[in-house]
Design brief:
The protein contains 2 helices and 5 strands. It has helices at residues 5-11, 56-72; strands at 18-21, 25-29, 37-43, 80-83, 99-103. Strands 1-2-3-5-4 form a 5-stranded antiparallel beta sheet, with helices on one face. A hairpin with a 3-residue loop joins β1 and β2. The structure holds guanosine-5'-monophosphate and zinc ion (ZN). Residues 5, 16, 28-32, 40, 85, 91-94 line the site of guanosine-5'-monophosphate.
């Protein structure tokens, strides 16, 4: 996946501001933050969209990493939002699966 922006981050070709990393997951600050804390959590293995999620393992890894980062960023108690955009109508722009972790301000509902 030489053309994928987030794969380039996993490969270390592009260096984002990493906040968490383990064997399966990389997490870094969004370049255009929509909240005081806006972190993207991605699987190291290229998966284009949520529709391509093969099984429960990767979902669990992403979700658990998000909760770890939420604690690390001091968001756990006050609250935060986890969001995945899937395909065009979901607002997905980068086609490497990623979870948005947003916090540090009051979230509103419904989202835009
Ligand atoms: P999507 O709309 O696909 O769910 O979200 C893509 C996210 O990636 C956007 O929030 C956007 O700001 C972020 N993004 C796009 N390019 C870069 C980049 O080069 N570096 C970082 N850190 N984030 C990026
Ligand atoms: Zn990729």
């Amino acid at each position: 996946m030489s053309d994928c922006l987030f794969c380039k981050m996993v490969a270390g070709v592009i260096k984002p501001e990493v906040v968490f990393e383990d064997e399966n997951v990389l997490a870094f600050r969004d370049i255009n933050p929509q909240a005081p804390v806006h972190v993207l959590v991605i699987p190291k293995r290229h998966v284009a969209t949520l529709n391509d999620l093969g099984g429960h393992e990767m979902a669990g890894q992403l979700m658990l990493a998000a909760t770890t980062i939420a604690r690390q960023e001091g968001l756990a108690e006050d609250g935060y939002r986890v969001n995945i955009n899937c395909n065009k109508k979901g607002g997905q722009e980068v086609y490497h699966l990623h979870l948005h972790l947003l916090g540090g301000r009051q979230m509103t509902w419904p989202p835009g």
